[in-house]
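User: Fold both of these, please.

Assistant: Here is the first one.
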Amino acid sequence: MGLLNRENRPKPSPESRRSTARRQAGRRDKTGHLYSIRRRWLYSNAMLALGLLIIVTVVVNLIIPLAAPVVRLSFNIALGLGAAIIAILFAANIFFIRSIVRPITEITAAAHRISEGSYGIQLNKQHNDEVGELTDAINDMSMRINQAEALKTEFISSVSHELRTPITAIAGWGETLLYDDSLSPDNRRGVEIILGEARRLGKLVEELLEFTRMEDGRFTLNIKQIDLAQELEETIFTYREHLRRDGIELSYTPYEGEVPEISGDPERLRQVFYNILDNAAKHGRDGGKISVKLELDDTDVSVEIRDFGPGIPADEIEHVKMKFFKGSSKQRGSGIGLTVCEEIVRYHDGRLEIQNAADRGLFVTVKLPLT
């Protein structure tokens, strides 16, 4: 059993996302504006060299045969000097273009890293010119974004903590009032609505608190050997009655063989399953059912949760795990449930995959390593 946090547990971290951003920047360099600079430079120099070659060829063919030996010698000397000057200019052009392209390439890679979430990174300023001014602007932007993110996280954490006490009080008194037999049916229904909304707000507050813990590095895992099949089955047993009241059927297909124990935090993984089932219930309610399946291969144990709702628009599916992204959905929520789930799965060195079904509905797959 161990207590692991963001700083000492190996996982796909922001640094890996930075490496991805650098690789993407390298690919863009082959097709984007930087490559166009090199290409225009190459074309312009090639046209200059071709023009000079044509002029020299014409002069050699027309003048040299008719000229005196001294003139021919002078021309050859001048031609040699001209070729040397062209070579020097060509080398100077290479140095000049590299002095522009290389810093811009580094700035482009840094900008992509910032867009991937590496706020606060600073570039090394190497030039006191226009490129240096651009570096200063990127550094200033990075710091301001980092400060804004820190302020936002602190604000969310503070507000969430302040909301927990009144929400707990509302929920507690709502449950107490339900035991009052003198309540009229309308009043009882009103109390049930209040209690339901208080629980919903409580869930949102807990998600926000989890999000802020992840953002500032206070998120922890209590790792031990667990039976994932048992944890999943207990989650389904607990959640099935809730879904039945909402008119949604929950079916479960266990793995036929033996599922080995894995390293994980049972509470955090149950949180992942709860969140995914809750999303499936909210967004796939029209389908009337949810299916859960446990699979095993040579490297991973997979939990596949499918709803039979409308799915996610193709242009939104790659963004659904981004924090606070809600897309075109009309369902209420914080927009960070899947963000929290993905971070928990990443902390377990696993993967959270989301894709639309071929016919109807959405597949959400949690893959966790066996070792």
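And the second sequence with its predicted structure:
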Amino acid sequence: MTASHDDGDLDPSQVLELRQYTLHPGQRDALIDLFDRELVEPQEAAGMRVIGQFRDRDATDRFVWLRGFPDLASRAARLQAFYGGPVWQAHRDAANATMIDSDDVLLLRPVDPGAGFVLPRARPVAAAAGADGALVRATIYLLRAPVDDAFVDWFDAQVGPIAAAAGAPPVARFRTEYGKNAFPRLPVREGEHAFVWFTAFAGAADLERHRAELARSAAWDRVAAGLAARCASPPRELHLAPTSRSLLRHAEPVGYTTRRRGGVHDFDFLAGDWRAAGRRLVRRGAGCQDWDEFPAELRAALHLGGVANVDELALPTLGWSGLTVRHFRLADRQWSIRWISARTGAMDPEVVGGFAGDRGEFYGEDEDDGRPVRVRFVWTRLSPDAARWEQAFSYGGPWETNWVMEFTRVTPREA
């Protein structure tokens, strides 16, 4: 059974091709038009999944696409059904005429059964290509040794949380499929140990903000050095603009779910006194890029053995404060979080969720000046004495982060 998420279904493909085509100058749009119009449904009728089609933003004559298969054993028969069938025979010459090279292909498999893509249940209706400016990034690491579970665990514990805290949570993770290519008519790259992860951005500005966050991160410097030591060559990033019919795209709000679970001790780290550097967007939901910055102080206490906790946030330069009340519903294994503002005395609607490792995500629905919004809180435990919280709203489109707090624990000597 395919796992269901609030924002789509987990793609069941256990084998995936990452295909990069070099085309004759000026021929990319011709190939994309042919591909999206004539070649998507016939491939899926033959038992394959066309996951994503893209323009490479860094190379005007490169077309990149992803194709999935239920398993390796049936891959050759499914390829033969399509490439030996009437649709490909009718369009083969026109497609091949656009191509210089089509043999740059990585054969991959998910690092675990749940590590593939969560995709929408229906393919998008054709629209102007790249009209939303969104992009998908594929990061390719070629390692010195096969990608084993120890590397995957290290990536999930070290790389993934830092990338997520900087605005780019991994949405899928793959490693080389070493099984035999039983359809040699379509060659694949061999003798390499690839690890490939994907993320998505609403646009180039979000990508640049992500890069800026990483540049400020000492933790990322340490992790990048660890990656370099494991890689046989420098990592390669593909910045991919989805075509109008690509299933894989930046379908915000990415990750929205009210089903995320956690543990009763998720917030134990927060007990005590903290100082913080905060920043908030001057105007939300208006494309504003200007931020107000301010100091803050926070005091948190655990109650009922950790089942509940309360913190008070003081914002002296803004002249107001607020209280957060959290409680853990044991039956649901889920946190409920509510914010109370001293300015109004009103309690906001809850956000719910929990932590996975050092990253906690919490989601809910609210209104912002009368506009319905989806709300996301993200907590990141950076170290025993450092943490980050951020709030983002979706007004029916991409997440917009509008409030960030960087916390540093106050030591007894400082208190």
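DSSP finds six helices and 21 strands in the chain.
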